[in-house]
Amino acid sequence: MAGDDVARTLAAMGPRLRIVRERRGVTLAEVSRATGISPSTLSRIETGRRKPTLEVVLQLAKEYGVALDELAGTAPTPAAEPRTTAPHGFGDDKAVLPLTRYVGGLHAHKHALPAVAEPPGRPRQVSHEGYEWLCVLYGRLWLALGDRDLVLTAGEVAEFDTRIPHGVANAGSAGPVEYLIMFGPQGERPRLRTPPAVGGRHSA
Predict the structure, then answer these.
(1) What is the pTM of this model?
(2) Environment class of residue 5 by beta-carbon count within 10 Å: exposed (0-12), middle (13-18) or buried (19+)?
(3) pLDDT digits (tens, 9 = 90+) for 5-14
(4) pLDDT digit string (tens) for 155-165?
(5) Strand arrangement, sheet containing 148-153
(6) In the chain, which residues have pLDDT < 50?
(7) Phi, psi of 20, rounded to the nearest 5 degrees
(8) 68-86: b or e for each residue (b if 16 or more CB lie within 10 Å)?
């Protein structure tokens, strides 16, 4: 593997580690207690500010129960089998459908929360490096952002620095909630290239 390929593989490994950790529904602090790797080191690796050593990669692969080639993005995909688009299940019954391959820059994924009989307790909050853009597609989403509580409905958007503690839950809409997320692990964010429309639709 050439030097450039190694650098690209290492750069892509951090975001993959973050996705695998979130898939397991564990925090940086919990992984730190299990592996002895400090939360700050884990955070820097996930955001690409630090290259993981082989020892660290082996520890995390064992902790997460994944193969090294999956973390490196080199797992073979049989030609006869299409690449799966099935959503990943999370410990809180959240399903996540990746929309990008997590090789750097903005990551996009679709989230779905199941219906609940009544609003849950305030969502558990996490914080980490990066910037997030969130758009609700269906239902009512409870966003706990720092000391603020927002209920977003279909078509509403929120964006925030993910160093602010944040968490989401179904706001008790008697139905599921679906939303899109674009996440920039190093602060990347969508860039507006056209001015907002004024006065509704423009005529052709």
Answers:
(1) 0.57
(2) exposed
(3) 666 666 677 7
(4) 999 999 998 99
(5) 148-153, 140-145, 166-170
(6) 1, 76-91, 203-204
(7) -65, -40
(8) eeebbeeeeeeeeeeeeee
